[in-house]
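User: Please predict structures.

Assistant: First:
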Amino acid sequence: MNGSHTIQTLTLPIEGMTCASCVARVEKVLKRIDGVEQAAVNLATEKVSFSFDPSKASLEELASAVNEAGYTLVVPAQGQPTERTSPLDGSIPSPQEKAFRELKREFILAATLSIPITAISMTMMSSWFHRWAPLTMDELNKFLLIATTIVLFGPGRRFFVSAWTIAKHYSADMNTLVAVGTGTAYLYSAFLALFPQRIPESISAFDLYFDTSAAIVTLILLGRTLEARAKSHTSDAIRKLMGLQPKTARVLQLGVEKEVPVERVIIGNEIVIRPGERVPVDGVIIRGFTSLDESMVTGESMPIEKSEGGLVIAGTIAKNGSIVFRATAVGADTMIAHIVKLVEEAQGSKAPIQALADKIAAIFVPTVIGIGLATFFLWLFVGDAGFVHSMVNFIAVLIIACPCALGLATPTAIMVGTGLGASRGILIRNAESLERARRISTVVLDKTGTLTLGKPAVVDVIPLNQSTADELLTLAASAENKSEHPLARAIVDAAERRRLPLRECGSFVSNTGLGIEATVEGKRILVGRTSFLAEHGINTVSADETAATLSMHGKSTVALAVDGMVAGVLALADELHSDSAAAVAQLKRMKINVVMLTGDNEHTARAIAAQAGIENVIAGILPNQKAAAIKRLQVERRIVAMVGDGINDAPALAQAD
């Protein structure tokens, strides 16, 4: 494609949609415009993705067409990016959260009034009520009129406004059905309440529909509130992903550090990172050495040591050592931004069943209104029922057809299902996922934090001289107690779990990336890599052999020397959850294929998989590659369930069935 005929694809927020009919209408409006090649609306995320030729249709024209249809296409201001390029501010509520709070308030008000309206309407039909009631029938009906008016034109106002906006464009949606049904019942009941003398003898004074109008508005609001709550949770997932990126960066300018907003960082800037800080953008190290915790991005459980020339990823945490790196990707080009984009694209995709539902919804409302009108005229002219009885039957058709089930049953089922799943540690993405769960043929499991505990722990203590395992661990923990390295903390934690008393540590020197030197009760202690011990003239042949064997089983190793002699080797690994093997065995008994998917290295992955009883392992891949791996399994006609922690596994979770 060239020049003026370049096709542009955008994903923008759209406001004012309330049901599947809205989805069909917006898509129809956009597709009618010359230059628009495709348009897909997602009601859950309240976004529309469309491809268009800017030479044939401008963004302003598209927005105008959508606005004329009764909705609002949120177009970014000139110069403002159409994709997120900076982290979300956790202190600012998302539009989905604001909508949820507003709907919650409206539902509470509607329910507060609807409960007494319904109670009074029901009890009015009993003889004992009128003997004890302090008000007459006319007074009670007028009270019900006032209360129902507040419900319909307070919390229920949104239905009438939306229905009127759509009607001006000769269209209808679910709001139309709610507005016509409840509005007709209300007007009919209000007329009889205000002019009781006009009530025909064939109609009882009890035959008013105030309770019906109020209850329907309240139930539909409950459904909308539950849907809004689910949408706000979807927004939270994106917010957490973007929250991995810090808001500021410490940039070197003419040798001076200056803290700037992360969106002002440009490619080529030199950025300083100190221990405990998150990396703000992607880049390559030009000075220094550090250990980076990349678990939230790659799934690697152990900190990765990085030095000059090493790549750093936005959102990862420096555990020790300071570095200076040059920015190579900023804003929407960082890996964390790509992860967010992958999740949003998966959330915005439309399942075939959803497309079918949209088509049905597009003809549902006019069909129901047509049936209602046919009922009215048939009773009026053929059944000779009179105007009032014909109107009652017309209202009955609309009320029965009012989408209580469509608006309430689905979100209720979703909330109950996801609530029960969450209480058991299961994240259920959407209703389609629940529907497809019974046909799952393959379960893909993340390693770090899912099969395993997600942090290093001492799993073996192997003495290589006359020392005991407890003595070896005590000396190592006493020496490492002043270090903040994750492996050092794991050694100290292991000693504390065994209730081993730590000894006084005198001198302490940390050699970043290699090991530590310390004096414990007069003994010279070295803890670190075997190469570090060898540099100090220590014979490490036995330690090298032991470390090599342990490494083959996916374990990290640390050697210990005391007064110039190798004393032993400590093995560390990410421990398996106590019930992981049993869960895998249960899945196999259900004839479900189990696959482990991880960003960790092959040896470590295979070792954990063997402990869990998993034969199929895909290791050493990045988050965007995880989603592709899931897709490959789906191409093989497998129904895939993904189990992960929701951060580094987010694209794969979104891609899974």
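Second:
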Amino acid sequence: MRPLLFATAIAQLVIAVVDITTVPRETSANIVPGYQARIRFTHEELYHDLARRGVFWEVTREYSCDFMTGVALKLGSDSDLMKLAQSKAFNIIPVYSHSLPDPIDPQILYGPYQPPSQPQDTQSSHVMTGVDKLHAQGTLGQGIKIGIIDSGIDYTHPALGGKFGPGNKVIGGYDFVGDAYRGSSGPAPVPDNDPLDQCNGHGTHVAGIIAASPSNPFGISGVAHEASINSYRVFGCSGTVSDDVIIDALIRAYEDKNDIITFSLSSVGAWSTSNVGVVASRIADKGRVVVASAGIRELLVLGILGARGRGKV
């Protein structure tokens, strides 16, 4: 069992996609201990190459879809990483952890936000961005499926339909982690089919911006309030999430045939060659709209996004 001790001791998590010389541009503070992932060739080819080089590894996730084949690995020691780096078949980069977006503090509204005589769709953000004009033309997101990768959604909120499943506003999704998950240092993920979040609220906040029903007494209307929502929960009630979980969610959102996929990450690991950036770009190449947040934490440097990538918004 000695290799398992090594597996918990090293401090590298990487995905084999781009040249490792690009890694120093990222901060090393949020590298997740002990993992590796890669996105080219077949699983069997990689495992054969690792065995031939005498690398000790543990498979934590395998990925297989029509735009990539990949695997997340936990390596046994730093020397295993060095052996892997000697391979000419693929290159490696770190996989990063991402902080949970700041929770949305509850706010109590004690009365209607607008007088009954005032038009419903006149909130300032809609007027400034032209959403009110689209709504006036009848463009309300009809027939569009939007996947939200975030902290989950409190779909019991009346403005989000109050229910979950086909025929409702939030039609589906998946919880990849469970409430207790805190990242690589905490309890193991406990996935299930219910992405309900009642402990953070950020994903609910995002869902409200996108799809809140206008039939509420406070004059709040989602930009595309007739769209259908899929929720993919990648954060527990606290802590972080690593790239390998987010990649799982991106693939699931793609395979669920969402027209638009959006995610919010509090991270400076934002280069277009990051793991999440590469996968998001491949999804965009398939004709989907992939949207990443910008500036969800005020301390981030101007120009640093959640995860850049070719073809992403």
